Amino acid sequence: MQSSPERDRRSRIATLQTDIAGVIERHTRGLADCATPMAELGLFRREAPARPAVCMVQPSIVMVAQGTKRLLVGGEGYVYDAERFLVTSLDLPANSEVIAASVPKPCVGLVLRLDVRLLAELIAREPEAPPRERSLQGSVGVGGVTAAMLEPIARLLALLDEPAAIPVLAPLIQREIHYRLLATDQAPRLRQIVSVGSQSHRVARAIDWLKMHYVEPLRVEDLAARAQMSVSGLHHHFKQLTGLSPLQFQKWLRLNEARRLMLSDGAEAATAAFSVGYESPSQFSREYARLFGAPPRRDVEALRPGRGAQMSGPAAPGRHRRSMAAAGAAG
């Protein structure tokens, strides 16, 4: 039997989630993904379960106020719902799956991109450094939702109905959300990514370089030097944190950008292949089919408007940057 304080806590969380779900449902009516006036915040809505879709997730928290989703990274699955939030500390290739959703009760939630500099500032202000945690496996975690975390999130969403107040109040509320995150069970993961010199921090630097230079030939030795790691160390920690080797990560970025070029710009498969750094269209076609389950032409035709499919491309390879609404789909 639950104690009275525990019942009160769960009741408060349920009330907040119901209110948050109502706001998100109202703002996403008729939409799958919804950008907001706050660049860091996106909303999403799914009205039916959906098979895993390829996506890129940025360092962010993803919350489901109603329904259930799962993120698949490196062979591991992370389920989150109204009681559990998802946190990612690196840019990660992943697959996003909707487990529970319906028209009467859609799966609705939000994605809030993390401000790593703000986290670092807040951590530096802590009166006492926490005991050194052992290195975490992976860069994705699922944490327990708290009322202290939901309250500022509810206030942030309320600003959608008061747009004039967003420039003044949103930064203050987002600061509080980051502060509350550091009081959750995912705080060690957040501390690790902002710790200069940590393996996570070095891998993040390597990822940033790959996102900006994915078209160029990759020498892992040069990438390791940029990250100030040995080649074996980079390979080990990169795969541990992302589920992919650096070369696989680059290939993922190239294939997703080629997909975007074919779908959005109408590029032919060979043109898209050369644009993202492939020298052999046949190799491109083979690797494309391996990732997306169909050759380029057939896959893109299935994704055309009116076919009922959606595309989730990379978050930010090169100069092509997705909106937070698209990142919401990744969550």
CATH class of the domain at 4-194: Mainly Beta
Structural class: alpha+beta
Low-confidence stretches: 307-329
Tell me, what's the shape?
A: globular
Helix content: 40-55%
Helix segment count? 13
The strand count comes to 10
CATH level-two architecture of the domain at 4-194 = Sandwich
Mean pLDDT: 87
Region (Disordered): 299-331
GO molecular function: DNA-binding transcription factor activity; sequence-specific DNA binding
Keywords: Transcription, Transcription regulation
Domain HTH araC/xylS-type: 204-302
Please give the structural blueprint.
Elements: H1 4-27, E1 33-35, E2 41-46, E3 50-57, E4 60-66, E5 68-73, E6 76-80, E7 84-88, E8 92-100, E9 107-113, H2 116-124, E10 140-144, H3 147-158, H4 166-181, H5 187-194, H6 199-213, H7 220-226, H8 231-242, H9 246-264, H10 269-275, H11 281-292, H12 296-303, H13 324-330
Antiparallel strand pairs: 1-2, 2-9, 3-8, 4-7, 4-9, 5-6, 5-8, 7-10
Helix pairs in contact: 1-3, 2-5, 3-4, 6-8, 6-9, 9-10
